[in-house]
Amino acid sequence: MHSxxxxxxxxxxxxxxxxxxxxLFEKAATTDLMTVAHQxxxxxxxxxxxxxxxxxxxxxxxxxxxxxxxxxxxxxxxxEESYVTTVEEYxxxxxxxxxxxxxxxxxxxGHHPDLGLSFYVNLFKKLKxxxxxxxxxxx
Length: 139
Ligand code: SF4
Prior knowledge:
Blueprint: H1 3-11, H2 18-27, H3 30-44, E1 55-59, H4 87-99, E2 104-108, H5 117-130, E3 135-138
Parallel strand pairs: 1-2, 2-3
Helix pairs in contact: 1-3
The structure holds iron/sulfur cluster.
Iron/sulfur cluster binds near residues 66, 67, 68, 73 and 110.
């Protein structure tokens, strides 16, 4: 396997295997990956359109029972630093986002054992009723 050969295949729109992708991830120069990605984009989007949005990430809760070893974000249920974000706090974050020209809220958070599907359904309904134009990019 060689990076140049794999990058050439990618430029010819050939699918690479997961192993080949991993090889490029570990071995290819970032500038080579950027160049190939740019060329592929120019082929697929010759009008050169690049789109973007302004959004904000907000955490629903830092309470989590998944215990991922790498995670320094979560707190166990009952911990003094645990929180569940309130609607008032979302309103502040959303209105700040709008002021900066943003229109999307990304919601993510821990696996809180007491927050089931209805909690999230009701939260999303509430936020959409308060801000109908807000895009929710959630969970
Ligand atoms: S918050 Fe996410 S990353 Fe952290 S322990 Fe929970 S599931 Fe894992």
